[in-house]
Amino acid sequence: MSLPEFPVEGGCVCGAVRYRLKASPLAVYNCHCKDCQRSTGGAFQMTMPVRRGDIELIAGKLAAYVVTADSGRQIAQMSCPTCHTRIWNEPQAAIELIMVRAGTLDDMSWAVPVGNVWADRKQPWVTIDPALVNFAGQAPSREPLYAAWSALTAKSR
Ligand SMILES: [Zn+2]
Ligand SMILES: [Zn+2]
């Protein structure tokens, strides 16, 4: 797995919202919670925690919808007001981070998940690799996920 040359870009389905990611995310992992299943329409969401200073909106505007996650935490889900693609989440418990949805990247081929959260809510047909960094519920700390991402991306350098 090799990282792209940053910056890279991503955006919404209609093209109104565009963002630039200036550095590697801190990790990429899957969340199997019910909110992620509903809001993606899939079995899990692929999320990338990014330092707030490493991402910028370069076109369009984002609209906020605040949800209370299964963890009890409040999260602002930011989406395109026109096509309603959810681009990223801004967790109020970690304002230094933006949780970007990996599928909004123009090229997400390098965004390989290193772990899973809310693994106990996964769908029965989803297979979780036991070698990854997995948590039954919310990760008590994201550090193990960050460490796994650093190890994975270091191999490519
Ligand atoms: Zn849009
Ligand atoms: Zn989730």
TrEMBL record:
Checking Gene3D superfamilies in the record gives: glutathione-dependent formaldehyde- activating enzyme (gfa)
Establish whether keyword Metal-binding is in the entry.
yes
* CENP-V/GFA domain: residues covered: 8-111
Q: Which UniProt keywords apply?
A: Lyase, Metal-binding, Zinc
Which protein family is named in the record? Answer: Belongs to the Gfa family.
The name under which this protein is listed is GFA family protein
Provide the species name. Answer: Devosia neptuniae
